[in-house]
Design goal:
Helix content is 45%, strand content 15%. It has twelve helices and eight strands. The protein has an eight-stranded parallel beta barrel with strand order 1-2-3-4-5-6-7-8, surrounded by eight helices. Helix 7 (153-165) links the parallel strand 5 and strand 6 (170-175).
Length: 302
């Protein structure tokens, strides 16, 4: 059976956009439940200032508590060399760096130009390489910027290639606003694949306009086999109030199961992990698949 790889970002990209912060114990329990469900690559924290992202406070403790598990990779976001040093000290196995395809977004989000952000990553990549730690790259706003609208495909390609050239083994293309459509998604992937091997590309889609699953299918058709997702659709987007945020992992497992593509994830166990974190956050699930399967189970039990 052909396979795809899911990168579970709920414990980082999801939680950091939720209004309620969770204790380290709860975050560790969430990750462990996700691992038991079959997920093997999980973002578990961000080594950023808790003043700016309070939801990620204690990421050092989360990584240390999780330790190492054969066949499982725990990753964390690092904005700079100081963040990397904290990640290495905690025993992090893999890290990620974050750039934007939009100059306006880069300035507003990380207070520097795209070129400056890439320059900042060079010592991060060099130090990580010396430590034997892999680095993944993210590119945000690949299908639209909240400040300037459409983002030229050439700009996305340029940043994607820069991250890959400097040593990122994989680059995740992020539709930060969730405004992408399947045709634009496929065209973007094909353009990037002219400069970077498609095997080094991943898709990161938000579901603001309900297009995330359709965009995943378009990227899949274009050759992408790695996708980021968030259990229960955790997270949101500060630039799109009310948005559901990241595509729910449940939706992608259901999609890929239906296509005969192996994910290694047990859907009922995944839904239980989502229910655990939803209760902790006092929210309802953002996954339509979870809602439907829970409702069906209730009817069958009645």
């Amino acid at each position: 059976m052909d396979a795809v790889r899911l990168v579970e970002v709920g414990a980082r990209d999801g939680l950091q956009n939720e209004p309620r912060s969770l204790a380290v114990d709860t975050r560790v329990e969430l990750v462990e439940r996700l691992v038991r469900a079959g997920l093997r690559t999980l973002e578990v924290g961000a080594f950023v200032s808790p003043r700016w992202v309070p939801q990620m406070a204690g990421s050092d403790d989360v990584v240390r508590r999780l330790g190492r598990r054969p066949g499982v990779t725990y990753t964390a976001l690092v904005p700079n060399l100081a963040g990397l040093e904290r990640a290495l000290a905690s025993g992090c196995q893999e890290v990620a760096v974050f750039a934007a395809a939009s100059e306006a977004f880069s300035q507003r989000n990380i207070n520097c130009s795209i070129a400056e952000s890439l320059e900042r990553f060079l010592p991060v990549l060099a130090t990580a390489r010396e430590a034997g730690v892999k680095v993944r790259g993210y590119v945000s706003c690949v299908l639209g910027c909240p400040f300037t609208g459409d983002v030229p495909v050439a700009d996305v390609v340029r940043v994607t290639r820069a991250l890959h050239d400097m040593g990122c083994y994989e680059v995740s293309l992020g539709d930060t606003l969730g405004r992408g459509t399947p045709a634009r998604t496929r065209a973007l992937v094909e353009a990037c694949a002219h400069e970077v091997p498609v095997a080094a590309l991943a898709g990161h889609f938000h579901d603001t306009y309900g297009m995330a699953v359709a965009n995943v299918q378009a990227a899949l058709d274009a050759g992408v086999r790695v996708f980021d997702s968030s259990v229960s659709g955790l997270g949101g987007c500060p630039y799109s109030p009310g948005a559901t945020g990241n595509v729910a992992t449940e939706e992608l497992v259901y999609l890929f199961d239906g296509l005969g593509l192996a994910t290694g994830v047990d859907l009922p166990s995944l839904i239980e992990a989502g229910a655990f974190v939803d209760e902790a956050l006092q929210r309802s699930t953002g996954s339509r698949v979870a809602r439907a399967m829970i409702a069906r189970a209730g009817l069958e039990a009645a």
